[in-house]
C-alpha cells in the first residue's frame, strides 16, 4: 500500500462516506433532471439504489445471521468502496456531459480511480478486507459504467460544465468529514430481524465456526459492531 500518513487515509475514507456520496449523487441527479430528460436522473438513482440495497443486504446477513465467506474474509460489500466508485465517476460524467466524448471518458476513468483509492483506504484502516473492497469497487464500477453507457448520447450543450462542477465540488467539500451512523442503523435492523441481542463480530466469527450471539431478551441494543 502507498505509505501515506494516517491522517490522509482518514481524509480519503471520509470522502467516500454516505454522508458525502449520497448528497453528491442527489446533486448529480438534480442537474440531470434540470438539463436533460428525466429518464436519465431516474435511471441513475435506480441503479444506485439497487447497488446500495445489495450492500445493505450483505451487511444485514452477516450482522444478524453470520452469513459470509470465511475463506475470503468476506462479511459484506464495502459501502464506502461501492458508493465512491459509483458516484465519483458519474458526478464527473454529469459535469462533463457538454464536453467532447474523450473528455467525458477521461472524467469517468478519473472517478473510477478515485473510487478505488477510497476502497484502498478501507483496507489500510482495517475497516474492510480485500474481498469486501474488491466487491464494492466492482459493484460501484458496474453502476457507473452502466449509467455512462445509458446517458452517453444525451444531447450536449444544455448545461455549462462550470456551474455543475462547482456545485458538485461544493457539496463534497462542505459535507466532507460529517459523520452519518449508517453502520449503527444497519446493525439495529439486523438485530431486530434476527432476534439476537448482539451482532456477529468478524474476529470471533472467523475463529469459531459454531459461534452464535445470544438471542435478544428485553435488553437495549448496545455496542453495534463495526465491520
From TrEMBL:
Keywords from the named record: Membrane, Transmembrane, Transmembrane helix
InterPro entries: PAP2/HPO, PAP2/HPO_sf
Transmembrane stretches, start-end: 6-32, 44-65, 77-97, 109-127, 133-152, 159-178
Residue intervals of the Phosphatidic acid phosphatase type 2/haloperoxidase domain: 26-148
Domain of life: Bacteria
Protein's name according to its UniProt entry: Phosphoesterase
Organism field: Caballeronia glathei
